[in-house]
Amino acid sequence: MRHAVPPGGEHTKVQTFEPRAKAAPCPHLMWRDLRGQHKVKLTMPSTLLGSASGVSVVITDTTVSRLHAEIELREDGVWIRDLGSRNGTFVEGVLVSRARVADGSKVKLGVTELTVVYDGEQQPPELWPEESFGPLVGRTPVMRALFAYLSNIAKADSPVFIQGETGTGKELVAQAIHEASPRADKPFVIVDCAALPENLIESELFGHAKGAFTGAITARTGAIEAADGGTVFLDEIGDLPMSVQPRLLRALESGTIRRVGETSRRKVNVRFLSATHRDLRTMVNAGDFREDLYFRLAVLPVSVPPLREHLDDVPLLVERFLPRGVVASPEIVAQLTKRPWLGNVRALRNFVHRAAVMGAQVALSLSDTAGEGVPVASASNSAQFPAFSPSPSLPPPAPGSLPGVADFDPAIFDADFKRFRESWGDTGEREYVRRLLARHARNVSNAARAAGVDRTYLYRLIRKHLL
Ligand SMILES: Nc1ncnc2c1ncn2[C@@H]1O[C@H](COP(=O)(O)OP(=O)(O)OP(=O)(O)O)[C@@H](O)[C@H]1O
């Protein structure tokens, strides 16, 4: 296998995986630092540069940040991205946040100058032979390369860190890894770190003893203990409060947990998967996330591409989301394949569910108001788009409003409840948050208090619905 998987247990240097379809350049990086002259061949699609000992290319220079920059090998060349470093990243003397680096260019990190020399081509990544991997579907090379990598890392036991924009399928990737792992018949426990207030997250993760705090009337098993033998998935790990991070680090390092209010530690055997839409490396540089915890969690990093980078999967995804027996017209599928899908696969799924029960016309008008980018059809021309058959088309609702119950195709109430809830729950949730924010002049703290939810959770909903 080309994507080398570090042996289970402790821990190799972090390299980011970002699958690509075609061969990329295979450059060398040359520089001189306190340890002397270096020449490194860049073989991974993404390489971390910095002064921390856990990064792939360690530069011994105190003016270089611990996680300073990332080099990406793309089909169109070598790119460098600054990770919020203290002294910045310069390409040919220009301060950049992300830039393409031409053959022979000079890159400066701190006072260290590196030369990038293109020489030779990398082998294209291995592709998964099928159009699905567990619950994930995809036929584009980018997704099939991801599936091949996931099948490989599923066999290892090291922590996996999944990065990607909201709605790209990070939770599904975690589920797919668990299902393809030797732990598949053991529990898969999900913790949403953004949904819980700071005072509850410890007890959620580690459990508590009876009487540990006011309201702890009985003892409680935490998520990590509940996942014993299986996998725990820490979603939105970037929202884990600083105060809880040392305890999680200790759990990862020692394979033990201590329930809140207990003195002794309990042994647990779990595999840790985590995910976030945020860049944890820049959070580390900003002091918002512990570096040691990042390296512990990100032994096997996975990057899930945004839907706009694998639009050719839209027809397959539409097919997956449609109820059995319902087909989409080729015209509408072709149009959907051209959208930017800012909310990624989740937005496409919601669109399809709405279209399947209401007709494509109403769904198009709703998704146009939901920040899905340039509309492919306005209410006036959407009649050209034959609806998903056999559902009838319905008139669009008034702008900014939800359709009344009378507007629904009655078939919606006969649909599978999970499907109904997934699409309409999201639509209702969005409308609730939109109105809540408007009522509180977008003051998130006041809005969260009024709605009785945690502020970080409300932030998450705002991001999810692009409000
Ligand atoms: N490749 C895929 N195949 C099938 N379904 C997918 C795929 N990717 C995403 N989905 C579906 O899209 C929806 C959103 O996916 P998911 O919740 O995993 O995204 P996420 O990246 O975890 O989102 P968030 O950042 O908001 O937590 C889910 O219904 C999921 O089943």
Task: Describe this structure as you would to a colleague.
With 467 residues, the chain is an alpha+beta fold. It is 30% helix and 19% strand. The protein has helices at residues 141-154, 170-179, 198-206, 223-226, 245-254, 280-285, 291-297, 314-321, 330-336, 344-358, 360-369, 417-439, 444-451, 455-464, and strands spanning 28-33, 36-41, 46-50, 57-58, 69-74, 77-82, 89-91, 94-96, 98-101, 106-109, 112-117, 132-133, 136-137, 160-163, 188-192, 207-208, 220-221, 231-235, 256-257, 266-267, 271-276, 300-303. Strands 2-1-11-10-7-8 form a 6-stranded antiparallel β-sheet, with no helix packed on it. The protein has a 5-stranded mixed β-sheet with strand order 4-3-5-6-9, with no helix packed on it. Strands 15-18-21-14-22 form a 5-stranded parallel β-sheet. Helix 1 (141-154) crosses helix 2 (170-179), helix 5 crosses helix 7 and helix 13 packs across helix 14 (455-464). The longest helix has 23 residues, at 417-439. The protein is globular, with a radius of gyration of 24 Å. The two termini are 43 Å apart. Adenosine-5'-triphosphate (ATP) is lined by residues 136-138, 164, 166-172, 235, 277, 317, 320, 345-346, 349, 464.
Q: How confident overall, as mean pLDDT?
A: 82
Portion in helices: 25-40%
SS strand fraction = 15-25%
Bound molecules: adenosine-5'-triphosphate
Uncertain residue ranges:
1-21, 373-387, 389-408
Shape estimate? globular
**Individual helix count:** 14
Integer-rounded radius of gyration: 24 Å
